[in-house]
Amino acid sequence: MNHLLIPWLLALGVSPLFAVTNHTVTREVFKQLCQLPYSVGMLTEVNLPRPQPPSQIPFSTAVLQSTATAVASTAVISMVVVSPGSVVQGSRGTVGLQIASCQEDSEIPTDPLGWSDSPTQLSLGSDDLSYYSGAVVGNWLLLTGLFTGHGLLAVYFGRPTMRFPGGMILPVMFLTPTMATSATTLYRFGNTTDQAIGTISLIGQGVYSVSILYVLVSADFKAVYNPTEYKWVDTSQPGFVKQYGLLFKDYGHNRQWFMGLESFFSIAAGMLGAYNLAQTSCSNLLAAGTSFFGSYALAQSALRPAKTKYDRIYYSAVSGSQLLSILLNTIGSAVDSDDMRKVGNGLAVATQWLVAARGIFDGLRQIKEIYGALRSGIKWTPSQAVAKQETVVLKELIDDDPALLLADNFLMDELPEVELTNLPTAELSPTIPEVFEPALDLTPPASPILEDTGFM
Q1: Structure confidence by residue, pLDDT tens digits, 278-336
Q2: Is the pTM above the cut of 0.70?
Q3: DSSP string, 51-101
Q4: Cβ atoms of residues 325 and 348 within 8 Å
Q5: Could you give the CA distance from residue 54 to residue 48 in angstroms, rounded to a whole number?
Q6: What span, in angstroms and rounded, lies between the C-alpha atoms of 324 and 320?
């Protein structure tokens, strides 16, 4: 039937030429040109698709992937520079961005997940949820491997030196929201096996969150906050801050338990983000997101857990901005305002870039500190770390005794000979005076002038 279209195409092609040359195509000429061997009614047999306007990519979809990738990259930088707070904000904020950009009737992606969602890129099974199953199982295998390797290094170098087990909070909080999203997706759309995998994963995440909270609120917590120097110090258990300090280093006095709350918030955010897939009513999801992020913003503003004023302002601003972006999307969805939703999506993206900038800033600051240490010729080894700890203990003893402080000015070279390892404080008293006894002759020399004037 394609030959029937040729005269029509010729007519359409030459008609602009006639218009330009001011010629008029008469009706008779046009009939002769378009004379067909078939009746005009038979042309209905040619079923051509109706032209459709090109599909428009939503604003949030166009920038979502690039923003998520940038934030995930800076979250990795935050892990390297040991900044748990930035890791938490970056990973959970990505879920908030997905909720804010909810699109109704969206299908479940069957392509491989991003590297930040599934670093192992594992796929289990042959159904549409194979990459979600692989993400859950692969992430647990990855965390198990990291925990085992970290533990072996701690056995060799010492738990305080390797920051074990507190250092595991960095990869755990990086993967927590995405693991909860994949597990909840398996529970919503999977078969019996998928639902079992998702349920076990969520239970496991709840267990380690409870464990974190227990360490930070139990009587075994052996650290106290020094508000003058903005840092935590050991109380009765030397090395406690080094072992567990990454769990609470970003928080102030009596707020060390907030990391446990952060873990529960991250799990809940990931579970909520799973309902962004195949969503039939974005209004309900956005309303739930508004309540969730509103609760977190309220906790940040009321409890003010960060240890410095700068961090308190930063975290309050981030949580408030996340709440406002989802609130604008909720109102825009309710009143059917695309402009308001665009503003909300733009604010969500800007917030994530703010988190990314903070991660870069922390990385540059850490590089500066390392560079300064290298210029000073400082090179840390595990043995020197132990020697430093013993020196600190000895200095505390010297500060408590003025006589020892005076001896310190004369016999500092002899101090390392004092054996302090694994000795209680009570046993140090008879040992130290023996070392300093020859130098403690404080009798003033005889002065003839004083004797002549009658003062002595």
Answers
A1: 777 888 899 999 999 999 999 999 999 999 999 999 999 999 999 999 999 999 988 98
A2: no
A3: P-PPPPPPHHHHHHHHHHHHHHHHHHHHHHTT-HHHHHHHHHHHHHHHHHT
A4: yes
A5: 17
A6: 6
